[in-house]
Design brief:
By secondary structure, this protein is an alpha/beta fold. It is built from 13 helices and 38 strands. A hairpin with a 2-residue loop joins strand 17 and strand 18. The structure holds S-adenosylmethionine (SAM).
Length: 707
């Protein structure tokens, strides 16, 4: 293994730091939040939150429609936190007075199913508190959304062509639904979302032609038709790949609803064109530029506006009283034939109003600085306009389909408080990384302006509402990332064809339908019962069924015998079999997950504790490299610098065994940059130091050492 060359600067935030990096420990969670963890938020494990029935009409119906009358709220565990100690001040403490008192006053990032996260927020003091909720749920596109993964650095492997660094695609989330499951899924979330909104709050639902008509009916039902605010058509400059009847789809829709009758609303405005501004040629005695507007009404049929002013009879635009008021204010100027005209001042212009067609915001393209390689990432400019329209500084913004974190990032930049949730660990990792950079950058920019007092209050750099965030887990979706990984390998290993339109079966093997059972448990009779239930709903389905799992419970054999007996008697048409990937004579030898490992050494010096990551190895990455290069039989994956496998390193210099409080983060922003691998942190004698290494596939390894 080659030794690392001169360490490179790793993140924007650490550009000036020399290797090894030195960071002051920050106290990341307060005593209040420690209590929050210890108590799991609520003394009981579960709370039932009630949901008011929707009153709106008309209603869309579907097979299996079930209104959500209550939801179960589970406790959340605090797993990570990031808080910057800085001399720039957050927004004044008054903005936090409505915040539930047991919850830390930071951004909140939840890893979990949003139905559970929303119920958790309702049960923990956020009912009616959120000013704006934006969601960008899956669009029912029938697709798996993947991101392309590759190693860091262009010269890290033993091969030279760039293909060799590719780790292939990693599924981030699946957008395949059976029947009307999609509608039920969104319906339940809408009911919870409405409960969280403040009376003057707004809800923004991003969707496209596939479901927008149904979703509008659902929103009419849940929010009430009278609370429909508007529908924004976001025109993409580059139409999407899908073409319908020769027309490329070039727009998404954003449906906007309010909770109450008077939503907070700051209409978005655009700057005026130079041509328009050039019309302000008149100057008054104070040097103010103005233009003269006609006061004659274009509609002659307005008897109440028909009167004589300054000796001229006309149908005017305004009443006589208003005209007198203008006169008093010195806002009138008269033409040579005595007709009054209105002086409109340039310095009073507010901006050009927009229409509901937004065609000036470009999608995130492959070269964009903001690109995170997260599929379906939305542009920051879009969220900036939305958040600025529906909120003021300090308001709470929520996105429970957070993806790469665009909503949280913009809320953070605009000085709003924010809450985000996603079920995909990759989304949480991407968002956390992005937010760390945004917060650090804000602090650096304030320092460079010697801004030590409360944050600048101009529009470009609003005061941040917070300089940190906490990551919570609601139930354990960590296994999902490994499941996705193993799932794809299994599909490839078996030679299955994936079915993108079937939400229950994962694909076909020859003529048989295949279901892959999650790899976190062996195939059990419950899995088989589930298949039987599904087949009951599909009376015409005659194909045989294959269930694939890593192992199987003993009771399976008896179940299968019974089932196949019934089949012989002609009661059911489908033969069911189980493939055990570990031991099957034909399909056995399947690669099973071997965890990644990291080695680190720790040395106390007069500067603090010096940490060196000596090695990191991920068998999954090596397996992926092998798979990607299988056309080249001589290729043996060999990664010369472990750092090309590593996405980020974070360090907690006083780890309490439960919550990872980030004291130092090394997150190279550019793909070709490597982590440093050498760090210095301040740590008290006897404190536990934890180093978390996350690889390019999102697998995390924790190295812990008592200093
Ligand atoms: C279209 S993407 C959002 C993209 C995001 N607007 C951005 O700018 O990056 C939809 C996200 O919803 C998440 N998601 C899907 N089902 C979910 C659920 N039940 N709970 C939480 N998140 C979910 C997916 O993991 C995915 O990240």
């Amino acid at each position: 293994m080659k030794t690392a060359k001169k360490p490179k600067t790793s993140s924007k935030t650490q550009k000036t730091a020399k290797s090894p990096k030195v960071a002051k420990p920050t106290r990341a969670v307060s005593a209040a939040s420690a209590k929050y963890v210890a108590s799991g938020l609520k003394p009981k494990n579960e709370t039932r939150v009630e949901i008011k029935p929707a009153k709106g009409r008309p209603m869309l119906t579907w097979v299996g429609k079930k209104p959500l009358r209550h939801a179960i709220a589970y406790p959340a565990q605090l797993v990570e936190s990031f808080n910057v100690q800085s001399s720039i001040k957050n927004r004044k403490s008054e903005i936090w007075t409505d915040w539930p008192k047991d919850i830390p006053q930071t951004g909140l990032l939840f890893h979990g199913d949003n139905k559970e996260v929303l119920a958790h927020l309702l049960a923990n003091g956020f009912r009616g508190k959120v000013k704006l909720i934006y969601i960008d749920p899956p669009f029912d596109s029938g697709a798996d959304y993947v991101r392309k993964v590759s190693l860091r650095s262009s010269n890290g492997t033993s091969l030279f062509d760039s293909e060799s660094y590719t780790l292939g695609e990693q599924v981030q989330y699946t957008d395949i639904w059976a029947n009307d499951n999609y509608l039920q899924f969104v319906y339940e979330r809408l009911s919870l979302i409405k409960e969280l909104l403040d009376e003057d709050g707004t809800f923004w639902l991003h969707c496209d032609y596939r479901q927008s008509h149904y979703l509008k009916c659902l929103c009419d039902e849940v929010f009430n038709r009278n609370n429909f605010v508007t529908e924004i058509v976001w025109k993409r400059s580059m139409p999407r790949g899908n073409v319908q009847h020769g027309l490329s789809v070039a727009n998404d829709s954003v449906l906007v609803y309010s909770k109450g009758i008077e939503p907070k609303w700051h209409p978005p405005l655009l700057p005026y064109s130079d041509e328009y501004m050039a019309r302000f040629t008149n100057k008054d005695k104070n040097g103010r530029h103005y233009v003269l507007d006609s006061l004659i009404s274009p509609n002659p049929d307005r008897p109440n506006l028909d009167y004589v002013w300054n000796g001229v009879r006309k149908v005017w635009r305004v009443t006589k009283d208003k005209m007198a008021e203008y006169e008093k204010q010195g806002r009138l100027e008269y033409t040579s034939n005595r007709i009054a005209r209105f002086k409109r001042y340039m310095d009073e212009l507010k901006g050009r109003p927009l229409t509901t067609i937004w065609d000036d915001i470009f999608p995130v393209n492959s070269q964009a600085d903001e690109r995170e390689d997260y599929p379906t990432q939305k542009p920051e400019a879009l969220l900036e306009r939305i958040i600025a329209t529906g909120t003021d500084g300090g308001d709470i913004v929520l996105d429970c389909f957070l993806g790469s974190g665009t909503t949280a990032v913009i809320a953070q930049k605009l000085g709003r408080r924010w809450i985000g949730a996603d079920i995909n660990k990759g989304a949480i990792q991407t968002t956390a990384k992005r937010l760390q950079s945004v917060i650090q950058e804000r602090v650096e920019s304030a320092k460079s302006k010697t801004q030590t007092l409360p944050g600048l209050e101009d529009e470009e750099t609003p005061s941040p509402a917070q300089l940190g965030f906490a990551v919570y887990r609601v139930n354990d979706y960590d296994l999902q990332i490994q499941h996705n990984e193993a799932f794809n390998l299994a599909v490839e290993h078996l030679g299955m064809a994936r079915t993108k339109t079937d939400a229950f079966f994962d694909g076909t093997l020859g003529k048989k339908l295949v279901k892959i059972v999650p790899f976190n448990h062996p195939v059990t009779p419950l899995d088989l019962e589930e298949v039987r239930r599904e087949l009951n709903n599909r009376p015409d389905e005659e194909r045989d069924i294959v269930l694939v799992g890593l192992g199987k419970e003993v009771a399976i054999e008896a179940w299968l015998d019974e089932c196949n007996k019934l089949r012989k008697q002609g009661n059911i048409p489908n033969k069911i079999e189980v493939i055990e990937l570990r031991s099957d004579p034909k399909y056995g030898g399947f690669f099973t997950h071997e965890p990644a490992k990291a080695k680190a050494s720790f040395k106390r010096t007069d500067k603090g504790v010096e940490i060196t990551i000596d090695d990191f190895i991920s068998p999954t990455i090596l397996e992926r490299l092998k798979q990607q290069n299988k056309h080249n039989p001589l290729f043996q994956p060999q990664v010369n610098d472990w750092r090309s496998m590593v996405d980020s390193v974070i360090i907690d210099s006083a780890f309490d065994g439960k919550v990872f409080n980030i004291t130092l983060a090394d997150i190279p922003e550019k793909k070709k940059d490597l982590v440093d691998g050498k760090y210095v942190v301040e740590a008290k004698k006897g404190a536990t130091i934890a180093v978390k290494v996350t690889d390019m596939l999102g697998e995390e390894v924790l190295v812990i050492k008592s200093s």
